[in-house]
């Protein structure tokens, strides 16, 4: 691991770390969002570190939310969505090896924008066993293939109270990102450099999460759902631009 750490470009770690810090502020307040900021940055700087480095971040960041708001977890919803995530993770490993990254990225963006459009028209997805399992499975594919996992499950849970949504999402993201890391490792698609980079980003993650406290208190005054829709839309636009610029 020490050799992998020394092989990292410190400028890549610094710039990506700043993106992770900003993303951690967003995720600490809204429940998800670190990938929205960090994925395009790291993809542009060093694509070989994707998606493993940010999946490491995705495993560690939710632990802070659980330490703060773990008492608010909705366990039945978390279990159903994680069952779907397990299925989707296997599909995500296959997607990485078989499908065009550009086509996958564009598809993710379009699906998220469709979900936001339905939400704005109050055609929200009912929170049922099927919708939770389906959102978990879709997130397993998108999270494993691109490390972007928040918008799909976030849209399903958007009407939950802020603390309950954040805590339930934290369980889902922590366990789900770990599933994806294991799946990539088994598939031979996770490198020591990716893991080392993820660990090197931890200090930025901690600072960003601590800075999220004032924003979290503001969103809990009735703005959590609006924040979810804004972050989801921005995430979709980021991945669509990424697909358009893919060479």
UniProtKB/TrEMBL annotation:
- Cross-referenced Pfam families, in alphabetical order? TauE (PF01925)
Q: How does it sit in the membrane?
A: Multi-pass membrane protein
Q: Name one GO cellular component term.
A: plasma membrane
Keywords recorded for this protein, A-Z: Cell membrane, Membrane, Transmembrane, Transmembrane helix, Transport
Instruction: Give the domain of life.
Output: Bacteria
Where does the sequence pass through the membrane?
A: 12-42, 48-67, 79-97, 103-120, 132-157, 169-188, 195-211, 223-245
The family database entries (InterPro entries) matched by this protein are listed as: TM_pro_TauE-like, TSUP
Q: Does the keyword Transferase apply?
A: no
Query: Localized where?
Result: Cell membrane
The family note in this entry says: Belongs to the 4-toluene sulfonate uptake permease (TSUP) (TC 2.A.102) family.
What is the name of this protein? Probable membrane transporter protein
């Amino acid at each position: 691991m020490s050799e992998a750490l020394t092989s990292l470009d410190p400028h890549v770690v610094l710039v990506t770390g700043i993106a992770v810090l900003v993303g951690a502020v967003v995720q600490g307040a809204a429940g998800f969002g670190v990938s929205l900021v960090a994925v395009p940055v790291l993809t542009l700087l060093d694509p070989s570190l994707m998606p493993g480095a940010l999946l490491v971040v995705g495993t560690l960041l939710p632990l802070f939310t659980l330490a703060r708001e773990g008492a608010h977890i909705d366990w039945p919803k978390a279990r159903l969505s994680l069952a779907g995530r397990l299925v989707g993770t296997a599909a995500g490993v296959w997607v990485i090896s078989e499908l065009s990254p550009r086509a996958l990225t564009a598809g993710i963006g379009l699906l998220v924008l469709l979900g936001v459009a339905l939400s704005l028209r109050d055609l929200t997805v009912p929170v049922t066993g099927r919708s939770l399992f389906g959102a978990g499975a879709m997130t397993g594919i998108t999270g494993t293939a691109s490390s972007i996992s928040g918008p799909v499950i976030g849209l399903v849970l958007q009407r939950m109270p802020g603390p309950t949504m954040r805590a339930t999402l934290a369980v889902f993201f922590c366990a789900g990102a770990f599933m994806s890391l294991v799946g990539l490792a088994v598939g031979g698609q996770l490198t020591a450099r990716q893991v080392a980079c993820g660990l090197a980003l931890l200090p930025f993650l901690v600072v960003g999460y601590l800075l999220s406290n004032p924003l979290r208190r503001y969103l809990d005054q009735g703005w959590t759902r609006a924040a979810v829709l804004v972050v989801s839309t921005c995430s979709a636009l980021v991945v669509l631009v990424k697909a358009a610029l893919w060479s």
